[in-house]
Amino acid sequence: MNKSPLIAVFALLTSLQIPQVSYSQGLDGYLCIGECMVVRTKEKIPDIQDIYFDTDQYVLDETDKEILRKNAEYLMNNKNVHLEIQGHCDERGDNYYNISLGERRADSIKAFLISQGVDDSHLHVISYGEEKPDCFQSNEECWKKNRRGHFMTSKRIE
Questions:
Q1: pTM for the complete prediction?
Q2: What is the pLDDT along the chain (158 residues), one digit of tens a residue?
Q3: Which end of the chain is less packed: N or C, by CB atoms within 10 Å?
Q4: Secondary structure string (H, E, C) spanning 92-138
């Protein structure tokens, strides 16, 4: 059997990757063009500050709300910026519980941003539970850093 046509088809299929939205909280931004063709840009996208939760909590306190008001103001003044809201947890609790808690954290952030006038279509929620810790030690100081709402931005060019 001649494997050349099979190899050619495989090479063609692997080259047809569908681009996904890419988010960045680093120094450089990413642009999402059309239906999410992402390109790197030298334009700076300002950092949007994380918020932190108490153990087993997803309710926003006044400090969180003040941070989120500033984030909402930025998003409303920059209509082409999209925000991924990530819910994170510390390592305690099982996976199912932490994914669920992370989702409640991200959803409470999204609901607050919408209540401040941010367009729902510019917000995306995802829960990572305990899977993407910011700190890897097993102590209270580290757990506190991991119980967070983390934000990644992308900028869409229409």
A1: 0.72
A2: 566 665 655 555 455 443 333 333 443 444 444 444 444 444 555 668 899 999 999 999 999 999 999 999 999 998 888 889 999 999 998 999 999 999 999 999 999 999 999 999 999 999 999 999 989 999 999 999 999 999 888 776 55
A3: N
A4: CCCHHHHHHHHHHHHHHHHHHHHHCCCCHHHEEEEEEECCCCCCCCC
